[in-house]
Design a protein that fits this description.
Largest sheet: 6 strands, parallel
CATH class of the largest domain: Alpha Beta
Shape: globular
CATH topology of the largest domain: Rossmann fold
Strand order of the largest sheet: 2-1-3-4-7-8
Radius of gyration: 22 Å
Structural class: alpha/beta
Order of helices and strands: EHEHEEEEEEEHEEHHHEHEHEEHHH
Strand content: 15-25%
Number of helices: 11
Number of domains: 3
Distance between the termini: 10 Å
Number of strands: 15
CATH architecture of the largest domain: 3-Layer(aba) Sandwich
Length: about 400
């Protein structure tokens, strides 16, 4: 592999992705590599101009492959780093390909990609700027906090939305919600195959020939976001509120539309310094999701005790169990066991020494293996066999 001396990293101008872009830039700089961070995805002549002027050895883009850059014929070494399922209205699988290498935060199948379509690929997990996310030893201002997205409540009008197939109404959105409830499927299980089977079975009542391959990806994304994800998070937070009302909720979405959550909602969070302050000022940081989430690592880096849900994804190559130890570096609750959630939360409130121990242990592991310098080094290691132009 040609020695990498200069890289350019691009993402859209959203604070979450900007955090990854600037973090990875600092990681490369810590390795002695010049790095540029841009917060828009360039197309056509703009990308041609940039590559010609800056002459990067690598162009790294979050959530975009080389073939998805529009109207740009310039030759350069492109690397994708995939975090999500969609980019605005575009599904990330549309026109995917052409990159020197593809990195994924979670298994490609969980972002809608077929494994054969993303080769060569490997995992690159989120990293942390341990100087920004560091303990400040301030007094706790709340017992629990969570930073996350919560959709608006689903109205009766939304529920009655007709779902069409080949010009024929086959069901309503509510029919799909009911089918998901009966299936027992939960968002934290991340079982996309089961989700597709449940949806296909509803459609097959009107069309025997309907298969999982006929399901629009946007419908799967909608069901995951508006129903599965929201249901898991709502149930969990209601249990937390039964333990303590000294809680703070942050993030995007429809928090204020939920009467039981609105009194505790503090607004969106944009900057890393804001997030770090929240982690440091909270006795117990909550997380409800899947995979090795960047906010979990950030809280750990602040020395915060993290309480998060169980998930089969924790025991995967991109999961927590590969890098952190339960009850040593974090505390886990059983997502579908309300009494367990309450019991775990109460125990943490009653044992400040345990909270301190967990946070301290987690930070040491962040420093040893999960900073942006570690991630930049991993990227270069995985690209050693790549055929650079």
């Amino acid at each position: 592999m040609t020695k990498v001396k200069r890289v350019a990293i691009f993402s859209i101008g959203a604070s979450h992705q900007m955090s990854q872009t600037t973090g990875l830039k600092r990681g490369f700089e810590a390795l002695g590599i010049e790095a540029y961070a841009g917060h828009s995805l360039l197309d056509g002549g703009a990308m041609t101009f940039f590559v010609d002027e800056y002459k990067p050895d690598l162009v790294i883009e979050i959530n975009r492959s080389r073939n998805q850059i529009r109207e740009c014929d310039s030759a350069f070494n492109h690397v994708s780093w995939i975090w999500d399922y969609n980019l605005g209205d575009m599904m990330l699988t549309e026109g995917f390909g052409g990159s020197l290498h593809n990195f994924f935060v979670i298994n490609p199948g969980l972002t809608g990609h077929a494994l054969d379509a993303v080769k060569p690929w490997s995992y690159l997990l989120p990293g942390v700027d341990a100087d920004v996310f560091s303990p400040n030893h301030s007094e706790f201002e709340s017992d629990f906090s969570i930073i996350g997205y919560l959709p608006d409540p689903i109205s009766e009008q939304d529920r009655s939305t007709p779902i069409n197939n080949n010009g024929q109404v086959v069901c309503t959105l509510d029919d799909l919600f009911d089918a998901l409830d009966r299936s027992g499927l939960k968002q934290y299980q991340a079982d996309h195959d089961k989700l597709k089977r449940v949806v296909a079975e509803v459609f097959q009542k009107a069309d025997d020939n309907f298969g999982v391959h006929n399901i629009p990806p946007q419908l799967i994304l909608h069901l995951e976001e508006r129903w599965l994800r929201a249901t898991d998070r709502i149930d969990f937070l209601e249990d937390i509120l039964s333990v303590s009302k000294n809680v703070r909720f942050y993030g995007y979405g429809g928090w204020t539309q939920w009467s039981n959550f609105a009194p505790y909602y503090m607004g969106p969070v944009f900057s890393n310094s804001e997030k770090a302050s929240i982690y440091c000022n909270t006795r117990i940081t909550l997380h409800n999701g899947i995979g090795m989430h960047d906010r979990v690592l950030e809280a750990m880096s602040c020395g915060a005790a993290v309480m998060l849900n169980n998930s089969p994804l924790h025991d995967t190559e991109f999961g927590l169990y590969r890098y952190f130890e339960r009850d040593i570096d974090f505390v886990q609750f059983e997502q579908e066991d309300s009494e367990n959630i309450k019991s775990v939360a109460r125990e943490l409130l009653e044992k400040p020494s345990l909270v301190s121990s967990i946070g301290g242990s987690a930070r040491q592991k962040i420093l040893s293996a999960h900073t942006w310098k570690h991630r930049a080094a991993k990227m270069l290691e995985d690209l050693k066999s790549a055929d650079f132009t």
